[in-house]
Amino acid sequence: MTKVVGVENFEKQVRELLREYGIEARELLNEAIPEAADICVKMIRSNSKKATGNYARDWTKKEQFYRGMGTSYVVYNKKRYRVAHLLEHGHRVANKYGAYGTTAGDNVIADAQDYAEEWLYDEVSKKLGG
To answer: How far is residue 14's CA from residue 9's CA, in Å, rounded to a whole number?
Structure first.
């Protein structure tokens, strides 16, 4: 859409275009952020350790509101939140005779977060026009 604007109205028109762009971007983010949280939860569930399946099943998301900033989502494990840090970053392993080694972290949470962030960026930029 081409619009002819005089020099005296140029600043006003640019401000109006930026305001409209900001509103559109905010609406797209409000639609895409819950989807990104769902993707993150699904990815963590599918890649988590599954000895009994309880740890993977307990991953969920929760919506949080920030005054003036819109909404955000937190992905967390409902029942086994203490184990998440140990599995992500590794820990020492001990038996009744003392420590005998360490286990490496599996980075499932970090990988899911990175993938969800990239997906969100790609989705919003695609909808905004590249």
So the answer is: 9
In angstroms, the CA 89 to CA 36 distance is 23
Number of folded domains that form the chain: 1
Residue 36 lies inside a defined structural domain of this protein: yes
Give the pLDDT score at 2: 67
CB half-sphere exposure, 5, CA atoms < 13 A: 14
Of 82, 62, 60, the C-alpha closest to 72 is 62
79 φ, ψ (degrees, to nearest 5): -110, -30
- Asked if residue 25 lies in contact with residue 125, where contact means CB atoms within 8 angstroms, the answer is no
What does the pLDDT average to over 96-117? 89
- Has residue 1 been placed in a domain? no
Structural domain that includes position 43: 7-128
Residue pair 41/49 in contact by the 8 Å Cβ criterion: no
pTM: 0.78
Q: How many CB atoms lie within 10 A of CB 27?
A: 11
Dist CA 120 CA 113 (whole Å): 10
